[in-house]
Amino acid sequence: MNEIRLNKIYGGKSRYHQFSCRIFSAGLAVLLFLFWLAPLQAKEVDYINISNPFLNKIPIAITQFKTFNGHAAEVNHGKNAEQILKDALNFTGYLKVLNSEAFLSNPSQTGIQLGQINFRDWTGIGADLLITGGIEERENQVTLKLRLFDAFNSKLLVGKVYTGASSQIRRMVHLFCSEVSHKLTGNWGVFNSKISFVSTVKGHKEIFVCEFDGHNPKQITHHKSISLSPNWSFDGRWLAYVSYAKGKPDIYIKNLKENRGAIVNHKGSNISPDWMPGQLNIAAALSFSGNQEIYLLTKKGEVTKRITKSWGVNVSPTFSPDGKKIAFTSNRGGTPQIYIKDLDGGDVKRVTFKGRYNTSPAWSPDGKKIAYVGIEKNKIDIFVINLTSASGMPVQLTMNQQDNEDPSWSPDGSLIAFTSNREGGVSRIFVMTSAGTDQRRLLTLTGKQSQPGWSKSTSFEN
Amino acid sequence: MNRKLWINLMVAMLVAGLFMTVSCAKKTIVTDGTTIEDQAKVEAAAAAEAEAKALAEQKRIKSQELQDQMAKEQALKEAKILAARNRFGNQNIHFDFDSAQLSSMAKLLIKEKAEWLGINSGVAAVVEGHCDERGTTDYNIALGERRAIAVKNYLVNLGISGSRLTTVSFGEEKPLDSDANEAAYRKNRRAQFVIK
Prior knowledge:
Largest interface: A-B, 38 and 19 residues
Distance between the termini of chain B: 130 Å
Helix content of chain B: 55-70%
CATH class of the largest domain in chain B: Alpha Beta
CATH architecture of the largest domain in chain B: 2-Layer Sandwich
Number of strands of chain A: 31
Strand content of chain B: 5-15%
Helix content of chain A: 10-25%
Oligomer: heterodimer
Structural class of chain B: alpha+beta
Structural class of chain A: mainly beta
Order of helices and strands of chain B: HEHEHEHE
CATH superfamily of the largest domain in chain A: TolB, C-terminal domain
Number of domains of chain B: 2
Radius of gyration of chain A: 23 Å
Low-confidence stretches of chain B: none
Shape of chain B: rod-shaped
């Protein structure tokens, strides 16, 4: 891999602290909402609260890239970088990239630095934020100069220079997007994450992996069987999944880079693996005892602890972000519902009460919510329930769009990937914001796709 | 005297002629008689042969008929066995949505399976548990497993050795009918027997 050099143009704090009521019109609403929620909270305030379901999208202008040499290759790479940048920021669901036809000035000609920009040209067209880009190409080495400005305050928020091979442009732009995300939300975002999923290949279900935005899908397994339920380790180096390669459901633990791993093939079914946050351990449902129970396993597949002890189905464990609790599906009460249990023992707490079928829990990265699948009146949809609020009323995220299943949170908690058959009854992977807005298809691939599993943000490269 | 001689001569010639005529006729008849005798012999032989042939044919037909009958009976028997075997494999045990409970119909069918397994004591079988497409992948694998185990347990209670029965769940992965309607769902919620 080519090395990417990272230089900060400007120093400064990693988070942008100052704000005033002038910042953004939309930002004001966000802040008011925040104060209303937590009037005594003295903590620094982010530009954007990504977990706010009432969020308006922040308008952002992205300029054409300034070319320093002006030759054809440089111009083309510049256009490419500009498009990657726009796509990535649009993908977030909280930024709205403005149409460049409305622009009043062209910094690629007049200058992309702080003193060279007339911010009234940008606030005048409704841009709260501005990104300028510059590109220099020499012998296939590309230097990108990228700056994020607060147009209202005429301030530089982030400035970065990246140098690498032209094949690394996508990666470099996404590194800058992570910086933008961190400045605006306090979180590094999704740009460095991957999504595993199931896709059919000639009638067989195989495990695939793609980048956060559906780019570059790669087939990982070739079992020519039924392979299911892929799940990432916290460091992005391991996948655990289920396969019928030996005739029954077993768990395969696989290191993606090194050719090693383990198979959990106890008598009965071995299903629904979930990696522990920060540790290479797995929770999974095994039925060797004659009953489906949840166990803790090492990455070598050794059972170290039994978590549940209840007649009936106990499946689909999902760790809390601190790794101390597990949410899971159980039908101990007669119908499948979601429960929470401390790993250190203690009582089991029931989470869902509404409806007769609630399964597939996914714990949000901030630990406050659980997304899950509910069936109501024969319709399968994704819901989210707040664990901190007393009411415990679920919020329905998908509606009237056929069947929607398998929710998986993005590492920053801003997005949820899921499976839907809304397009012609064929199962595909979709993405929406955690508030249920901006529902769109993630990728185009032959066959049927399902069971997305979003990785943590990681610097790991496959 | 001359006249008398002529008359005598003529009489003599007449007699001679008559004699010759008679003699000639007799000769022809004799010849014919011989031919008829030969013909009869040949015909009799042919008739005998034909009769023997007919008899043999009759015998052959009879034996063929017997063989056919036996083969038919054998085929019928085999078809019956095959039908029973197919029924064992094709007659699925059905379940309600999100349920692994055995209905009275399910129990009746399992008793029939037990009878078949009793007759075919050398056979080992896999009980596969399946679900309809509704609900989630993991939960359906668990539910399918409970269905398969429920059927196996019932068979064991009916006296079939548990060592002849294994269970596996395919959840919602192998629907019989991929339509998205209640009729298809009903078909897909099943325990299915596969002879090892």
